[in-house]
Specification:
heterotrimer, A mainly alpha (429), B alpha/beta (252), C mainly alpha (320), A: 429 residues, mainly alpha, ABC transporter involved in vitamin B12 uptake, BtuC, two-stranded antiparallel sheet, 70% helix, 3% strand, B: 252 residues, Rossmann fold, 6-stranded mixed beta sheet, 4-stranded antiparallel beta sheet, 33% helix
Chain lengths: 429, 252, 320
Amino acid sequence: MTVAPTNTRKYGTITFGTLAPWIVCAVLLLTLPLIFGDRGEITIMSQMAIMIVFALAYNMLLGQGGMLSFGHAVYVGMGSFLCLHVMNSASFSSIPVPVLPLLGGLFGLGIAMIIGSFSTRSAGTVFAMITLGIGELMAACVLIIVVFFGGEEGISSDRTEGMPFFGVEFFTHIEAFYVIAFWLLVSSVLMYLFSRTPVGRMANAVRDNPERAQFLGYSARWVRYVSFSASGFFCGIAGGLSAILFEIATESDLNVGASGIILLIVFLGGVGVFWGPALGAIIFILLQTVLGLQTHLWELYVGVIFVCMVMFFPGGIAGLIVAHGVAMSLGKLNLLIRPYLTCVLPGIMGALGLCGLVEMIFHLREAATGEYEMTLFWTDLNTHNFWPWLIFGGIALGGALIARNQTPVLKEAWAEANTIEITSVGEPT
Amino acid sequence: MKPALELDDLCKSFGKSEIIRGLNLKVEKGERHAIIGPNGAGKSTLLNCLVGKLIPDTGSVMFDGKSVLGRKPHQINQMGISRVFQTPEIFGDLTVMENMLIPCFGKRDGAFELNAMASIDGQKDVIEKAEAMLVDMNMAHKRHDHSGSLSRGDKRRLEIGMCLIQEPRLLLLDEPTAGMARADTNNTIDLLKSIKASRDITMVIIEHDMHVVFSLAERITVLAQGTPLVEDTPEKIKGHPKVKEAYLGEAA
Amino acid sequence: MDLVLVNLIDGLVFGLLLFMLSSGLTLIFSMMGVLNFAHASFYMLGAYFGYQISTVLGLGFIGGLIVAPVIVGVAGAAIERYGLRRVHQYGHVPELIFTFGLALLIQEMVKLFWGQNQIPYFEPSYLDFALFSVGDNAIKAYKVFMIFISLLIFGGLLYVLTKTRIGMIIQAALSYPQTVEALGHNVPFVFMGVFGVGSALAGIAGVIAGPALGTFPGMAFTLGSIVFVTIVVGGLGSLWGALVASLLIGWMTTFAASYNIEMSSILQGIGFIKPEDLSESAFQDLWTLTLPQIGPILPYLLMVLILVFRPQGLLGKRES
């Protein structure tokens, strides 16, 4: 039997323990550019930071409020476009760059307040469909309203035109990174605090049981509206940051595809845990940049991972990590090492074998006629030969069979690792 | 003394069928008042009119001298009316303690007791209030449990606690023991009785189970075909011929 | 007048095509309460399988029309059985997200096997001629064939749902799934069947629409959101609503695309004076707006308005 340990955590105390993660994050953000100082690496980290802000803001709706939005990139895009217009205006010379995201946030807030005034009237499918409709409308407007959105080319600008901020003119990527990192920290802290406020808690309550929440005296619509607006604000900040980093915004930043990607990221990371979406954003950008360099098929792999995640681990990666907390607090994590080696490892091997087959199929179809050679897993092979297919097929099949064979062992170990011995159960106080 | 809840000439029909016809009812302050009646007597329609889900065709519903009609559920709650649902409605994804904290934010007049944007971590008094209520409900040892996995009796206790912490003046109970085991039923009855002793709350109980009604109610209204048949103390109701007739039909 | 007639025919073709997708989607929604984002992906699979079977395997267009929907239907049923049913226990939002992920995955798979570009999938030569003409506009035989097939499917669906026993069970399961289950019917099996048949219908739509609208990896997303709009506008779960909305949207988009009404003439008509130099005006986009430009967004506009003012849809009975 699985027994959750009694939690003796007291409510209402701010200790070093609650502050420590934030301090670690701040130190990390300060030192990361010293470790990964390459221009490309800094851009990737900046992208991650922006995605984290966006993902956390999105999870204010999906995870905390239970509202599924298919048009959330709209608020990011709008924030982005506004900031670019400010950057192109004459008054930019009197506005320092680090203030821009705030303007973007306020614009996102304004748009969210207008759209939320009718879209948050109901939750569930109706809300999801309204957001989808708004998303499509906005994406179409980008191409029609050229004055504000610049049509197909979008709007571009130059961040170095702004008022110098303590002498910094943001010529280099690292200076932009620190602005982004600052706003990442500020907005995550604010979003975390928001989840601890009565409104944040009521959002959870309305998600779980709107009727009950209403008969405790809270208007479900009002709670949804506040969450929606707040989420729009932080999305706008993410948009402002993206304007600073890329200095351009186009239709692809706010269309339904972009909204779909954030849904994917947040779910991959885990909706149930505050830092889950952040993890999802980091992993997704890593997959996009690292895997994207290796193979043309990275989107296919991400899709497979995503679908498997929804089917088998709806709590996302963060949910998986948190699930190990029980075993860890019982000191039984070591019980899991062996089954992981005998079950999960062959499973991964099998998956890689399958990837090899898929890559070879892709090569067969895409390669120029007469070109048989390809490089796969640092090996040169001939796709028109029999052996590579047999080897990769063998690895895929073998890995899958071993993993399947070992699954009961893993399940047993998991159950064992999460069980408290009867003798150790004391009467909870 | 003015009655806590006063229903005057309430009528509600769906299409051609009249569910409630000319219902008059007075519930005195501090009273435990049960409304019973056979199936189709209009009990749930009456309740839905009280909680803002339905709007009656004619008549008035006054609570503390103010009309309830036309208000939304959350506004009715803010007037000082709390409600216990037929199946315990709690926030199943949250812990017991979080459930208990949620109703603490609001004030009776609709304003917020806490600044809506202030973190609740620092609000010692609110947390202590919730803790005290958990102790009252005998659930303090389960404060970090996932409330969705509680037993039905525990869920009911939690729900009643969530209503009481709002300090309502009127508590509506819709079949509070429906689907419960005997032991849980008796626990709930004891709990509801003890509330009367410690707080002065008017209760309106809509109930099927005669055991619950007779052990709990101080006054009973028997509803039949949308109008009150008799209204009296439990002792008098027990042997009343009209009640027998309503429950057993004309043949009895 | 000729143009009106031509547009009426074109709109009917598109509307009936939408209906083949939206009827399945709305049935699936009513039964399982989940909006299937991957529905249009089955439509795409239908087109690709149709191409593969008719041209590459050489079974001809009719062969594709018969075999491809069967494969798509079986695939749909398998996805319901082994995927959706598993996710169902986690609740509605994960279900919706699952179908969303599935749509992405199917698109990537199609790219893997058939490539990024449009494939050469054409209408069969024996249907590639002008059947009759309206004024100067020739109406292709293939269009008439599409209308014919759609009406056939619609009639068949109507017959099955209203006249047969399985249709009665489905209708009952739409409103009272628990009751139907309590009466001893295998509701999960009915669900799987409806999902499979709905997918197969989408597959048929794909086979016949592929040659007309183009067969490329983005075709699912292009049509998918319009199908969503259709069932929301018609009322979730209402088959007649889906038909009305499909035709409405079909005609709306076709007519909007072919009448070049300019905003500037409307603005001038109601007394505004067109500025000399548009590039200086903040409203330059308003002045240059034309009906064909806003045609594609009209369905979304309609949906948002419907959801705000009549959330149950045109013919729907319940909200959400």
